[in-house]
UniProtKB/TrEMBL annotation:
GO cellular component labels: membrane
Enzyme's top EC category: transferase
Enzyme Commission number(s): 2.7.13.3
InterPro entries, A to Z: HATPase_C_sf, HATPase_dom, Sensor_HK_TwoCompSys, Sig_transdc_His_kin_sub3_dim/P
Protein name (record): histidine kinase
Molecular function in Gene Ontology: ATP binding; phosphorelay sensor kinase activity; protein dimerization activity
Highest taxon above the source species: Bacteria
Length: 437
């Protein structure tokens, strides 16, 4: 088997050089201000600080060119402005500003070196001190905006130009090229690390937001599956009754015509098929670790037992049941019980010892469930460590299932109120249209 051959060293070096040159020529971010996502004051701060620095560097640089190097005032002003003014551009376009500042710095060094009559009298070369300060400020903007490859290319270009001036005129060199190379490398390394740390924090925050959304969605889906499993028993009971009645009708009713017998047989067959499909659906909804629930589903008739258990947990609760459980539809009966159960569980967990009132009444069209608790009393041990559902998410889903409404919220005295209105007849619209509660 042939092993893949490695490219020659010179070819790898050539490819890396091309990538570095491309990095110098291609900005990696949009031309936006440094603190574009911050408040108004923070967005203006880079411009204010840079303007102050430019206002200081231009006259100082002009003084050094004209006084130390005996340069014409107009030329000194132009060179100094060319080295400092692009710093204002660096707030939004640091790489483009580096092109201008770098060219102006090189031009200033060449003019000082080659122009006749420009004698060095105390000035620094090849880089002036104002030029070094401005260049380091520019490195801060570059490090906070560009990638590692671009920063490496900028640093290598800085070191290469400084070394070239060292080789051209060693008699004029005062070591400023070494100073600028070291300081620019330190600044780029530090600001680049800050930028990468900030990006990592932003990615982590975004991932946490996505995880929280996924956790909320998973909780909602789990609660819907749990409600579907519970309602299976309710619907299965009615389907079983329909099947038995349709099968026994020809024997209970005398004188049925053949067409009616066939109709009852078709009804019984359809009910059996529906019941089989429901059991298949239940097998999908039930997790592998969850077994079948053998106990009957609870309802309003068991609310008194639920309230008594809450009282034993240290919560003084009272029940006012103003409706006969026998006249409530099965789905509404189960939903009302679960809403009261979850509300009382929340009182036990979050407001232990709070006086609680449970009221279930009917106005003829709706079943009204009201659970109101006061502020938390003396701390007591909760009856149960885990909840019976997923809190308000489960309540909303059960109310949505029956086409009712739910109103929850804190009270002025520090308590909490849960009010649900469940229609006793089938709602005009079918829940489950895909909209979120």
């Amino acid at each position: 088997m042939n092993q893949p051959t490695q490219p020659p060293l010179w070819r790898s070096a050539y490819q890396q050089s091309r990538l570095l040159i491309r990095a110098l020529a291609t900005p990696t971010h949009a031309p936006t201000p440094l603190a574009a996502s911050a408040g108004p004051l923070a967005r203006r701060l880079p411009y204010v600080v840079t303007s102050v620095i430019v206002a200081l560097l231009v006259p100082i640089g002009m003084f050094q060119f004209s006084d130390f190097h005996r340069m014409n005032d107009s030329v000194a002003l132009l060179l100094s402005a060319a080295q400092a003014l692009p710093l204002l551009l660096a707030v939004t376009r640091p790489l483009q500003a580096w092109w201008i500042v770098g060219a102006a710095d090189v031009l200033g060094a060449v003019v000082v070196l080659l122009a006749p009559g420009l004698n060095d009298d105390g000035g620094t070369w090849p880089w002036s001190m104002p030029g070094i300060v401005g260049y380091l400020v520019l490195m801060v903007f570059l490090g906070l905006r560009e990638t590692r490859r671009t920063l490496l290319a900028v640093w290598l270009a800085t070191a290469a130009v400084g070394m070239a001036f060292e080789l051209v005129s060693q008699t004029r060199s005062e070591g400023t090229h070494v100073l600028l190379t070291v300081l620019s490398g330190v600044v780029l390394l530090f600001t680049g690390a800050l930028r990468e740390r900030g990006e990592a924090q932003r990615r982590l925050a975004a991932q946490e937001t996505i995880s929280e959304q996924e956790r909320t969605r998973r909780t909602l889906l789990e609660e819907r599956a749990r409600i579907a499993r519970e309602l299976h028993d309710v619907v299965a009971h009615h389907m079983s009754v329909i099947t038995v009645q349709a099968d026994s009708a020809p024997y209970r009713i005398e004188g049925l015509p053949p067409q009616a017998r066939e109709e009852f047989t078709a009804i019984a067959s359809g009910a059996r098929e529906s019941l089989t499909e429901m059991r298949r659906l239940l097998a999908v909804l039930r997790s592998e670790s969850a077994g079948g629930e053998l106990a009957p589903q609870p309802g309003l008739s068991r609310l008194q037992q639920l309230v008594e258990a809450t009282v034993r947990a240290g919560v003084p609760a009272r029940l006012a049941l103003g409706v006969a459980p026998e006249g409530v539809p099965s789905a509404v009966d189960l939903s009302a019980y679960r809403i009261v159960q979850e509300a009382l569980a929340n009182v036990v967990r979050h407001a232990p010892g709070a006086e609680t009132r449970v009221s279930v009444t009917s106005d003829g069209t709706d079943l009204v469930v009201l659970v109101v608790n006061g502020a938390a009393g003396a701390p007591v041990s909760p009856l149960e460590g885990a909840g019976t559902g997923h809190g308000l998410v489960g309540m909303r889903e059960r109310v949505r299932l029956t086409g009712g409404t739910l109103d929850t919220g804190p009270l002025p005295d520090g308590g909490f109120r849960v009010a649900a209105r469940l229609p006793l007849t089938a709602p005009g619209t079918t829940p489950g249209d895909g909209s979120e509660p």
